[in-house]
Design a protein that fits this description.
This is Glycosyltransferase family 4 protein. This protein has helices at 20-34, 65-69, 76-99, 111-114, 116-119, 133-141, 153-159, 198-208, 221-228, 244-252, 269-276, 289-297, 306-316, 321-331, 334-345, and strands at 2-6, 38-43, 53-55, 102-105, 122-127, 147-150, 166-167, 186-189, 212-215, 236-238, 256-259, 281-284, 298-301. The protein is of the alpha/beta class. The longest helix has 24 residues, at 76-99.
Length: 354
Amino acid sequence: MRVCLIASSRFPIAEPFQGGLEAHTAALGSALIERGHEVTIFAAPGSDPALGAVELPVRRFEPSPAARADVGAHPETWLREHHAYLALMLDLIEHGRDRFDVVHNNSLHHLPIAMAAATGLRFLTTLHTPPVGWLESAIALAPSPSTYVAVSRHTADAWVHAVRPVVIPNGVDTQRWVPGPGGERAIWTGRLVPEKAPHLAIEAARRAGLPLDLAGPVHDRAYFDEAIAPRLGDGIRYLGHLGSTDLVAAVGTSRVALVSPRWDEPYGLVAAEAMACGTPVAAFARGALPELIGPRGGRLAEPDDVDALARAAVDAQMLDRGAVRAHAVEHCDLRRMVDDYERLYNGSPVGAMA
């Protein structure tokens, strides 16, 4: 099939990935290409052309001096993002039926939802976040035959007041995230931002007597400088923003992975990646993490309870790594996810709805 995959305009779909959404889009696009589909990914500047990425024109719009002088003017980054998606959707309305069989909206922007019906194409949107106002507004004001997909049962339940999404859990490439031997250190991976709370993982690791590595992009420099940098040392290391090859190696040689969100994770890709490496997970029981991890993949702790997370880490590290890996292959594999998306692309029913 000819698939138009709409990605985020904020971060490129390229290594090292800025977050789970970018990693998910790259994995989905690569898998579809491997299965013989013709994939075009509309993404941010700097995205990998091997994925069929076509740059969204994020930087091509500059407001006039008069528009900048407007006291109610939007930030220029907001305007550029709006301009990029507006240009894309207008192009799909005019030329999309000649170029594509299906459009898969994997972005977090409201315009692909609001303008989907006008394209005349089979259109599906994956909901990667809890409900947000601009997406709810687009769904309410622009009813269309679009299909909505939630990345977990938790996320589907959160959206059920606005739409009834099909549930297709995210997946990771278990042939790339290979089993590792484990090691002596714990690991925390992801964006270093307050809502992911790596500072709580540091405190839990210390109370559990575990040295800890942190890996991921610093999206909030003030938070890193105030909450992370002072806690480094004495067994706590920051490895930097790693590409997937180095990240697989780091996770696979870790004793346990800590996941410490202070928000309800819509899925929890870092937990799936760790389990695919055979590394058990100790996590706060928030969002979709309980349905993702289960008793075979790790141990759960009461949200925000650092002592409970420390106890979960001590217990989780005793789990059999082969069983952890088997759980990930059975429940978190990319191929299962892509199978389901292919069925939706073809108009076939998939799984349960919220």
